[in-house]
Write a structure and sequence with these properties.
Elements (H helix, E strand, L loop, with lengths): L2 E6 L5 E8 L2 E2 L1 E6 L5 E8 L2 E9 L2 E9 L2 E9 L6 E8 L2 E2 L1 E5 L12 E4 L2 E3 L1 H10 L19 H4 L12 H14 L8 H17 L6 E2 L2 E2 L6 E2 L4 H11 L5 H9 L2 E2 L1 E2 L2 E2 L42 H7 L4 E6 L14 E5 L8 E4 L7 E2 L5 H13 L15 H10 L3 H11 L7 H11 L4 H10 L7 H6 L6 H13 L7 H10 L3 H13 L17 H13 L9 H5 L4 H13 L2 H14 L3 H16 L5 H13 L3
Helix pairs in contact: 4-8, 9-10, 10-11, 10-12, 11-12, 12-14, 14-16, 15-16, 16-17, 17-19, 19-20, 19-22, 20-21, 21-22
Length: 638
């Protein structure tokens, strides 16, 4: 098991939620009563810790000790008085290893108990006492332990369970809990006053300049941002009282002082009144959502949709304890990767104050590395003012060009070097030192580093010869990155012979596809043919060979096209039929008629007959309509 594990009460209220990592509990287990109140928690680290089951706030019914996912230590069943137990046993790495006792309702040992075990084998009392003298892992026999009275586990004894005080509502109680969590959250890197002063200075400088000079990839930032109006202390207190929360202090200070056009997350920050603008799939209103525990954990991959029937509930649950602060609409003009993404501020739980990005689709939440809202927002403004391309702001390392260059040379970890190269690509123009880093990356030993370097090369003429050399790279991912970078830089037309040569020797399906598309766009197909791959055992390669034929004219160099017409892969077959028809309707009819005469299999004869009928009696006005018709007959669709 890997991911969230949940159970529900009969009234469909959440009962417990926990996180499993590679089959072991990892993180905080939370348990709720039938009214939705949090009644207890415990924490496991990679399957190690004390598993507690709460009957109600502050009252446990079960206690189990684990190590690496196996019973290791005591297991006890508690009575409702939190002082006595009804059963007890002891384990060692998953096997019975100690004394097992059971008591009746009167607090007396049941007949036949205690039972004694040594490494899973039951022994008598004398044998057990003798074994204890040689094995310190065995709990020694003590006659007083035959009484059912025990001490509560430390966590429960110290009151770490969430117990609702008398005389206050659940929301008021959770409000007090959130305050305690806030006090233990990650401290700010700077004081609010210093950061706010710097923020206002940055905003004023940016307002004096043209927003359009700031870039995201090959686009400029729009020069209109929603105006943020500062909120009064009374307005902030009303919001906090209504939702029974306290806003993170730095975000609260921001709302109280900002009074300007404020950019953020590619477009406007959201006003506080739009706090629930998290997902179009959530029904409004959202009662107690800001006070409910947030299930998101930093540095832990989250599976958004489970395989059970609770998909809607799970989708809604992941927004608990989150306050929307920015978003991107599905139809906005930026890169598609983050379309529909919401930027949220965590209000509850241990990650309080952190920024997380979350989307409507099956996209894992992504935590920002910044410790707070102001840290995140100041980083955005600093990079914006420095002229750094805001593409990749959320997902790659921070730092000036000089710091990134130094970090690249200091690091020996391929994945770190890869991310540094992506970060460098945001700085343009590059200095000679940065150019040298990119060249070093392109020629590096690790394929992921080479791929990142190729993708990060700015679209400048000076890098093109280096790219073309990498068309012979031994790793397909690098070759594909080269072709796509040449396409993006519009340099394909200048290197048609080199790309056709690469196409002829290529044996990877994805690279074939990219190269065919690049040459087709540049009107450079036809000088080489990948026909030698028509017999490849890889269906993907055969499919793209047929795709190549579909993009070219004439029969010269098209050896194997007829063979692909009979390919068992439906997509390769459809592409080949379309390619053959492109070369002439009469030739297509002749070949299909010949094939029909040779075929005895009824299903194949039926398909060929229908296709022949279309070509003879209802010729399409363009070759692609034949392909569309064949897809409806069951040959597939590309």
């Amino acid at each position: 098991m890997h991911g969230w594990y949940r159970t529900w009460h009969e009234n469909e209220q959440l009962c417990e939620v926990m996180w499993y990592k590679q089959g072991q509990e990892h993180g905080t287990n939370k348990q709720y009563d039938e009214q939705g109140n949090l009644i207890g928690t415990y924490t496991m680290v990679h399957g190690t810790g004390v598993d507690l089951w709460f009957a109600k706030p502050g009252v446990i019914s079960e206690e189990r000790h684990y190590q690496d996912g196996a019973h290791h230590g005591y297991e006890r069943w508690w009575t409702a008085d939190n002082q006595t137990i009804s059963e007890e046993g002891h384990f060692w790495h998953g096997v019975e290893h100690g004394i097992f006792r059971e008591w009746n309702a009167s607090g007396r040992l049941r007949r036949g108990y205690p039972h004694y075990f040594v490494l899973g084998n039951r022994v008598n009392k004398r044998q057990y006492i003798r074994a204890c003298q040689q094995d310190p892992t065995l709990p020694p026999f003590n006659a007083d332990d035959n009484e059912p009275t025990r001490q509560l586990p430390d966590g429960v004894k110290q009151g770490t369970q969430l117990k609702e005080p008398e005389g206050i509502s659940q929301s008021q109680f959770l409000f007090s809990v959130s305050s305690e969590i806030r006090e233990t959250s990650t401290p700010m890197s700077e004081t609010f006053e210093t950061q706010l002063t710097q923020m206002h200075r940055r905003l004023e400088d940016l307002r004096r300049s043209s927003w359009r000079k700031y870039r995201c990839g090959d686009r400029t930032i729009i020069d209109h941002f929603q105006r943020m109006t500062s909120l009064s202390e009374a307005s902030l207190q009303t919001f906090e009282h209504t939702h029974a929360i306290e806003l993170p202090s730095d975000y609260r200070a921001f709302l109280a002082t900002v009074d300007a056009e404020a950019p953020g997350l590619y477009e406007s920050l959201l006003p506080l009144e739009d706090w629930d603008d998290l997902s179009i799939n959530l029904e409004r209103p959202l009662p107690s959502y800001l006070t409910m525990p947030c299930p998101l954990i930093p540095d832990v991959e989250i599976e958004l949709i489970d395989e059970d029937d609770q998909g809607i509930l799970l989708q809604m649950e992941r927004y608990q304890g989150l306050l929307a602060i920015a978003k991107r609409e599905p139809d906005d003009p930026w890169i598609d990767e983050f379309n529909g993404t919401r930027c949220a501020l965590i209000i509850t739980d241990t990650a309080r104050g952190r920024i997380v990005y979350i989307g409507d689709e099956e996209r894992p939440p992504y935590f920002m590395p910044d410790a707070s809202f102001l840290d995140w927002y100041m980083r955005w403004l600093d990079e914006l003012q420095a002229g750094v391309d805001i593409w990749g702001f959320n997902h790659i390392p921070r730092g000036s060009e000089a710091k990134l260059v130094d970090a690249f040379y200091q690091s020996t970890v391929p994945f770190d070097r890869r991310d540094i190269l992506y970060a460098l690509a945001r700085h343009n123009p590059l200095t000679e030192r940065a150019d040298e880093v990119l060249r070093t990356g392109v020629e590096g030993r690790n394929s992921s580093v080479r791929t990142a370097a190729v993708k990060s090369l700015p679209h400048k003429e000076r890098f093109v010869p280096l790219l073309v050399e990498r068309l012979q790279d031994k790793e397909a991912s690098v070759r594909e990155a080269v072709v796509e970078t040449l396409r993006a830089g519009k340099y394909v037309a200048n290197y048609i012979p080199e790309l056709n040569t690469a196409l002829e020797r290529e044996n990877d399906a994805r690279v074939l596809f990219s190269t065919v598309n690049a040459l087709h766009e540049a009107n450079g197909l036809g000088l080489a043919s990948p026909a030698k791959h028509v017999n490849s055992p890889n269906e993907g390669i055969r499919m793209y060979v047929a795709y190549f034929f579909e993009k070219t004219d004439g029969f010269e160099g098209a050896e194997g096209l007829e063979q692909l017409l009979n390919d068992e892969n439906a997509t390769a077959h459809v592409n080949a039929v379309a390619a053959f028809h492109r070369r002439g309707r009469d030739a297509s009819i002749e070949w299909i008629a010949a094939r029909l005469a040779q075929t005895t299999e009824s299903e194949e004869r039926d398909r060929l007959s229908k296709t022949l009928n279309v070509l003879q009696n209802q010729p399409p006005t363009a070759w692609y309509k034949t392909r569309n018709f064949l897809s409806r007959l069951g040959f597939g669709w590309v």
